[in-house]
Design brief:
Layout (H helix, E strand, L loop, with lengths): L5 E12 L3 E20 L2 E8 L12 H13 L5 E8 L9 H16 L8 H12 L3 H8 L2 E6 L8 E6 L6 E7 L5 H5 L8 H19 L5 H4 L6 H4 L4 H12 L4 E3 L6 E5 L13 E5 L8 E4 L1
Parallel strand pairs: 3-4
Antiparallel strand pairs: 1-2, 1-11, 2-4, 2-5, 5-6, 7-9, 7-10, 8-9
């Protein structure tokens, strides 16, 4: 294929962990960032509209630009300059995969501008973006869409990160409870212990296996399938209001989990509605469909 002079990329946000699947389970959500990138004679120009405007860097330090640079190291053919416009809808630092979505948008744009076949380079994109994140759950969900199971292999293998995509059951209607406050993944990871009791590891392992079945075939099992003893309990001091909201949802029979590193909460409803008496102070409820397509690109 020829090299386009402009590309437009749409990337969904995501929710990772989904309870027990720490760094391994992800769900793409119908909340999107749109990035337009065009080739320029030199330099770099970045415009940001929406989430992050006025707060994120508008130069080489921008995450989308960094992902493009990382991808071009692998696929080559970097243009002499770029002009970029980001229209962001995914809230930043809320546990909805904004950083992974930005990385995926950049890597996809770089591969497309290089004239490469995106389908043939999807694993390259996963390696670049998951490498930037340190894990593949959010990146794989944004890249592939749907429900993903991600894992990592050790050693010097060229393909370190892996993911398998499956369709989420159509009876699952997520509602994101978007927190009004932010949380940093580095902070919440710092609360995790080096080890957990064997009984808690076994419990969480069984729930992770059950979650794969629940998200794809048996949504009636989502309540037990989203139980976790590996990370959410240890992170409660970082987001006590989120943990309380999750508990309130679960006590009403609604499967719920902290979304990624928090502080947002993901409710997995059957019809996209929540109880009227639920206290949502400090949170905004947003019904979001599962995004089945993942990253999409249009050539200019």
């Amino acid at each position: 294929m020829g090299r386009p002079s402009e590309v437009r990329v749409r990337v969904p946000g995501s929710s990772a962990n989904l309870g027990p699947g720490f760094d391994s389970l992800g769900l793409a959500l119908g909340l999107h960032d749109d990035v337009e990138v065009s080739v320029a004679a030199e330099g770099i120009e970045v415009e940001v509209v929406g989430e992050g405007a006025g707060r994120v860097p508008c130069d080489e330090a921008h995450l989308v630009v960094r992902a493009m640079r990382a991808a071009w190291v692998v696929v080559g053919d970097a243009p002499p300059g770029i002009r970029m416009r980001c229209r962001n809808a995914i809230p930043h630092s809320r546990g909805l995969g904004s950083s992974a979505a930005a990385a995926v948008a950049g890597a996809v744009a770089a591969v497309a501008l290089s004239g490469r076949d995106l389908e043939l380079e999807r694993d390259t994109i996963l390696q670049v973006t998951a490498g930037m994140e340190g894990h593949a759950d959010n990146a794989a969900a944004s890249l592939f869409g749907g429900f993903v199971v991600a894992w990592e292999t050790a050693g010097n293998m060229s393909e370190r990160f892996h993911a398998v995509r499956r369709d989420a059951h159509p009876g699952i209607h997520p509602v994101a409870l978007v927190a009004g406050t932010e949380s940093m993944t580095s902070t919440t990871r710092g609360l995790l212990p080096e080890g957990v009791p064997l009984r808690d590891a076994a419990f969480t392992g069984s729930r992770s296996a059950l979650a794969v079945l629940a998200f794809t075939e048996r949504p009636d099992l989502l309540l037990p399938a989203t139980e976790d003893r590996l990370h959410q309990g240890y992170r409660r001091p970082a987001y006590p209001e989120s943990a309380s909201l999750m508990d309130a949802l679960r006590s009403r029979g609604i499967p719920a989990a902290i979304s990624g590193a928090g502080p947002s909460v993901l409710a997995l409803t059957a019809d996209g509605t929540l109880p009227d008496d639920l206290d949502l102070h400090g949170f905004t409820a947003v019904a979001l469909p599962v995004d089945s397509d993942g990253a999409r690109v249009e050539m200019g």
